[in-house]
Amino acid sequence: MIIELHLLQSFPVSNLNRDDIGQPKTATFGGCTRARVSSQSIKRAARLLFEEYGLDSSEVGVRTKRLLDSVVERLVRADRDQEQARAVAMAAIQQLGFGLDPARGLTQYLLYVGRESIDQLTSYCLSEWDALEKFASARTKAQQAKVKPDKAAQVEVRRILDASRAADVALFGRMIADNKDLNVNAAAQVAHAISTHVIATEFDFYTAVDDLKPDDESGADMLGTIDFNTACYYRYANVDLSQLAENLQGDVDLAERTTRAWLLAFVNAVPGGKQNSMSARTMPDTLLGVVRERGAWNLANAFLKPVTDNDLMDGSTRRLVNHFARLRGFFGSDGIRAAVAASVSGEIPEVEGVLTVNSLDAFASAVLTAGEYGR
């Protein structure tokens, strides 16, 4: 079973997701420039909300290069000497097959691990303390920071970095180049959000004055520009419930709570770029949820021709729902179990087979019930 989430969300002056020169990200779509927010930015904003929507902190992971520091902190709390703890923890990470920058103590790349993995690695250090101390003392700075784990170490790393209790790792997947046994196939897909209409990047020229400047001096003491745009975005994401269940090793309760957290977090997710200076904290206006047994339809082509209506949200909503209806009419509705729509403005076109509800609670309940997760 697959749940799809289609959202239309309008933002005022904003720079939610910047490129390398500070401008709002864009994409050319349908031969026109559109505003864009990357899928990575949206996923991070959603991940940070999972604990607010029914998941415990122990059930979500962390993406970090600072695994060493976290383990050392726990070892020190277990009454181990800090210098020895650092050497032992570094030896453990290296012995398990991960490279470390000896000077900074950072892994070579970001590792996506469940919080339980940090505790498991700490326990491994404590139980293998003497062997790890010996391993650490035998290595010199001239030696490579990474070793190929033996069979015993491979068993340990699979146990320690098991992600079957980390809901976000189960959703978004994990790839570890050094050990393919640790890879997790993502259950969720997230598209880059794009504006339904043509945009032009603008800029705000600002100045700042020194509050302690003498009265007889004039002029600004700082000036600059901040790029921004305003846009109505189409956002799309889906989750494969079968893959999610597999990743969570059949834990139905955790899978159900993860699915609900995924849905509510994505509805409420807003990237944090330039929010302190622009506060573009809006909510989606139009929501369309589709539950299907197979396949997936990104509805971005509804906006291949840019929306030009004076009311962008109304025009985008009609485009979205009618495009879905046309696709279903052409390709058939076999496999589509339900389609549910809701709108803050209430302007949902009447389309056969699309249930209209009037609140987020009703929307989430209808979509999750149609998914019949775990039944």
TrEMBL record:
InterPro entries: CRISPR-assoc_prot_CT1975. Pfam families: Cas_CT1975 (PF09344). This is Type I-E CRISPR-associated protein Cas7/Cse4/CasC. It comes from Streptosporangium algeriense.
